[in-house]
Amino acid sequence: MAASLLAFGGLTALLAPLLGQAHLLDVALLYLLLTLIVSAVWGYGAGLLAALLANLLLNFFFVPPVHTLTVGSPENVMGLLVFLAVAGVGASMLAMLRRQLEVAEAGQTEAGILLEVGHAVGRAPTPEAALTALCETVASRLNLTRAAVLRLDGEWTVAGSSHEHSDEMRLDPIEVERAAQSSASGRVVRLADAARTFVPFPPAATHQGALLLIGRLRTPRRLDQERLLRALAAEASVTLHRVELAEEAQRAGELERADALKATLLSSVSHDLRSPLTAIKAAVGSLRSPGMQWSEEDAQGFLATIEAQTDRLTGVVSDLLEMARLEAGVANVRLEPVEVGLLLRDIAQATVAATCGRAVTTSAPDGLWSCTDYRLTMQALENLVDNAARYSVPGGAIRLTAAHADGLVVVRVSDEGPGIPDEDLPHVFEKFYRGVQGRRSRGSGLGLAIARAMVELCGGAISARSSLRGTVFEVRLPAAEAPR
């Protein structure tokens, strides 16, 4: 207001040379312009006071007799009244436009905040991340210290927060009391210091909760703050409901997978467990038969059967335990530079018994190193060699080759025919899956699944391609520089 007084004073001093009836209209128009400017900048109240001040200044300094508030001519009285009316109406209209502009800007700000919150929630990769994104966006747009979503599930807890460690955020007794009060009454509750605001979830929400805002709210003057806060609380309620649905879906999925695993385990492994046990029991029963006298050769045959079936049973149980250990995430992974050529030669040596005299060749460039876990990678490749020995043509060669390609080390295990049928190829790495060939062979159906899990733990990937000429398993591992 002081600025408008200075403006009127300066204008009056500037117009002083125009004293007299001849320039009265020009002076009145300049005062009217200044009054409208004051109304546009400071609002209706300031504009109305400016109109009265302009009328007085015009009367005192420019309407004869000057330097008095007396008006000598009836025409001038009417002119001053018209001036006051025009100035008042103009001030009112400009003030109204100013209010409408402020309301429009406030509405645009409100819509922008809600839209940005919606986009942040929609872009979040998981429902849990959506809660964090919502709180971070609300805190940023409202200039808050922190925002949090509270949930009543037996007790009040923090379901999500703009703080990076929301699970460590604890509510003090006052906050718990105000959250409960806000949720029960459906009203926005503020603490006495006005630095913490609790906005309840809408009555239609599927659960009780509140949006906690920490810090002093700063919003545009014309913005309906409570409406905005309730809209944000409604968005928080919907997002929290999505989190709960995702948690329920995850639990249901885990139960479904567990049931499927049990069913698959019973159908796929029961035969592999029962058959060796039956053979062992039959061999032991024959040896212990009281009325039979077995020759040394027969006795050795029974013992060989017991040993072979025991090895088979041990293999099945070992595969089951290894798969369970990998899925539980308890495998100890130690990534380090490994010379690939030496690794392939070690695998060829370790699989001599499994390959039963087949020709196993290795080929790798000198100085080729991979960043991987030696033990896990070796076991994964041993499983691939064992698979090749089981399902390729009898006596067929097995080749282990390695090469460098696009920053990766590519290891291939190749065999000679008859290949994997097209309908089986997409499923060979699934647990307990056995194709046409697998059902004619002894095994747990876990070898390739274990190989894939181990390769992925090492940061690699595995794939297979097949034709009538044979099958090629390809393992891609990160390349590494040779240690110095």
Written description of the protein model:
- The chain has 12 helices and 12 strands.
- With 484 residues, it is α+β, with helices and mostly antiparallel strands.
- It folds into 4 domains: 2-103, no CATH class; 143-245, Beta-Lactamase, CATH 3.30.450; 249-312, no CATH class; 336-480, 2-Layer Sandwich (Heat Shock Protein 90).
- The strands form 2 sheets. Strands 6, 7, 8, 9, 10, 11 and 12 form a 7-stranded mixed beta sheet that branches. A 5-stranded antiparallel beta sheet has the order 2-1-5-4-3, with helices on both faces.
- α2 runs antiparallel to α3 (44-62).
Number of strands: 12
Largest sheet composition: 7 strands, mixed
Which range does the strand content fall in?
A: 15-25%
By CATH, the superfamily of the largest domain comes out as Histidine kinase-like ATPase, C-terminal domain
Classify the fold: give the CATH topology of the largest domain. Heat Shock Protein 90
Question: N-to-C terminal Cα separation, in Å?
Answer: 78 Å
- Count of discrete alpha- or pi-helical segments spanning 4 or more residues: 12
CATH class of the largest domain: Alpha Beta
Outline = elongated
| Helix fraction bin | 55-70%
Rg, Cα atoms, Å: 43 Å
Low-confidence stretches: none
The helix/strand order is HHHHHEEHEEEHHEHHEEHEEHEE
**What's the mean pLDDT score?**
78
Number of domains in the coordinates?
4
What layout of secondary structure does this protein have?
Blueprint (H helix, E strand, L loop, with lengths): L1 H14 L8 H19 L1 H19 L11 H50 L3 H15 L4 E8 L1 E7 L11 H13 L3 E2 L5 E5 L8 E6 L10 H63 L8 H32 L8 E4 H11 L1 H4 L4 E4 L5 E4 L1 H18 L6 E8 L2 E7 L32 H11 L3 E7 L2 E11 L4
Parallel strand pairs: 7-9
Antiparallel strand pairs: 1-2, 1-5, 3-4, 4-5, 6-8, 8-12, 9-10, 10-12, 11-12
Helix pairs in contact: 1-2, 1-3, 2-3, 2-4, 3-4, 4-5, 4-7, 5-7, 7-8, 8-12, 9-11, 11-12
